[in-house]
Structure formats: C-alpha cells, structure tokens
Amino acid sequence: MKLGEINTLEILRETDHGIYLIDAEDEEVLLPNRYVPEAFKIWDKIDVFVYLDNEERLVATTDMPYIKKGEFALLRCNQVTDFGAFLDWGLVKELFCPFKEQAFKMKPGGWYLVHCYLDEKTERLVASSKTNRFLDNRDLTVDQFEEVDLIASHPSDIGWNVIVNKKHTGLIYKDNIFKDISVGDRLQGVVKKIRPGNKLDISLEKIGFRNIEPNAQRILRELEDNDGVLNLTDKSNPEAIKAQLEMSKKSFKKAVGTLYKQRQIEIKPNGIYLVK
Predict the structure, then answer these.
(1) Cα–Cα distance between 88 and 175 in angstroms, integer?
(2) pTM over 0.85, yes/no
(3) What's the CATH fold of domain 147-204?
(4) What is the per-residue pLDDT for 131?
(5) What Cα–Cα distance (Å) separates residue 124 from each residue in 49, 117, 133, 158?
(6) φ, ψ for residue 148 (rounded to 5)?
(7) CATH number of 72-132
C-alpha cells in the first residue's frame, strides 16, 4: 500500500462502513461509504488515494488531493494551532505543516508553496515550505537546451528561483522574464546554460532557431485578434513589446523576419500588417 500516492486496488468485501480494498501484498484499506461508487462488483479495480485519517488509521478516498507525496504545490493555510499549521489539500483531513518545517511563520488565509513528504518518525504525510532541502543539483537529470517543467519558487534581486522537473533548482534572470510571475506558477522553460557547480540558468523562451516558430505564431494570433494590424516595429520600445507579446525585442525581430520572408506580413513605418 503506497501511502500518499494513487493506488489501483481490488474490491474485497462490503461492510456497513464502506468497502474494503486489497493490494497485491494482501494489505487491506477501507474506502468509506461516502466514496463508494453507486455500482460495483467484488474484485473490481478502483483508483484511490491512500493516507491516514484523524485517528491515524489507513484510509482510502476517491477524492484526488492537490498534492501527493513527493510533489510541490501552492496550498492555503486554513488554521494555525500550538502544534503547527494545517493546509487545505482538497481532503477532509487537512495536511499538517510543523513549525520546524515553515520557512516563514504561516498565517491563516495565506498561500504557501510546500513539498509533501512522508515523515519517517510518525509515518504521517506532512508538508514543508522549506522546499530547497528537497531539491538537489549534484546529479543533474537535464541537459542544455532541454525543455523542462518549472514551478516558481521565490523571487530574488536578480530574477526568479524555480523548481526544475520537481528535482533541481534553477534561476530565470530578470532580462529573460517577459510576463508576470507569482509563487507557485507552473511554467514551461528551457535549460539555457549549465554553470559551474551545476547551477541551472533557465529561459522561458526557446533557444535560438527553436524560438522563432512559436513567437511567429504568437504574432500571427495577435494580428488576427487586432484586425490584421499590430502597432509594433523594430523601433518599438522593448517594454511595449514585452507588455503586448510577452517576448523580448530580439525574439520579436526574429519572428517578424520569419513572417516577412514567408510573405505573411507587410512591414510599414507604423506597424506590421497581415497579408490577406
């Protein structure tokens, strides 16, 4: 039985409290009545999330939590007690975050990026907002120019720190950010550079020739949404391009060049025009 994960189990028997499920190792768990499907047969297979209830008993649910063991997610703090904070993770029983696992003191109503893990001492699923201790860049599993999944961790003076593929830490420099970013945002990026010490520089734009086609498509969509006219040129302020298209001026010029060569646009002193 995998605590904190989705398990595919077989229906063993029905009781007054619900149905009991069994895994390949003959371990049983109760699926309470509120989660039992209307129609089922003994030995049917069912996907459930397994965790401990308020009485520290193993229990299953068909509700899917916002976060599972080994994952990161932005969760809301529902309450703080003398023992720690309790977070809403989409289940009846709230997810506990001890004071020692809080990077900053949590407050009710606040949102926090946390990692969910299994505490070996208590055998309970708990949360930690000290996310960096669950990341490691010593043995990288990514290469330069590889596309990666990102979670925005926290801002710094030089950009945004991000979680890369749920395993590593990375940095997006300010001059590579062309959209508003908030803690917990899930983004797509590219490994721009691997610096000494396995430090990852991340770009939200694809590198080199890989970047031209998506940006060209973005400009075409903007033209179509604006009656075929876009009041931007290679003389436009970089901030104006960033605000309207969420890309750098350099990327904009490359994409415009591609569209012009394909004869999909006309370039005029006051902007670019879609060829009809």
Answers:
(1) 35
(2) no
(3) OB fold (Dihydrolipoamide Acetyltransferase, E2P) (2.40.50)
(4) 96
(5) 14, 8, 19, 38
(6) -140, 155
(7) 2.40.50.140
- The mean pLDDT values, 10 residues at a time, for the chain of 276 residues are 95 95 95 94 96 89 96 97 96 95 96 96 93 96 92 95 97 90 94 94 79 82 91 91 90 90 89 88
Read off the tokens for 95.
């997810």
Distance CA(116)–CA(128), nearest Å, equals 7
**Fold of the 209-274 domain:** Arc Repressor Mutant, subunit A (1.10.10)
* Angle 172-176-182 from CA coordinates, rounded to 5°: 60
Asked if 6-61 and 147-204 have one fold, the answer is yes
3-class DSSP assignment, residue 219: helix
For the chain, give every domain's residue range.
6-61, 72-132, 147-204, 209-274
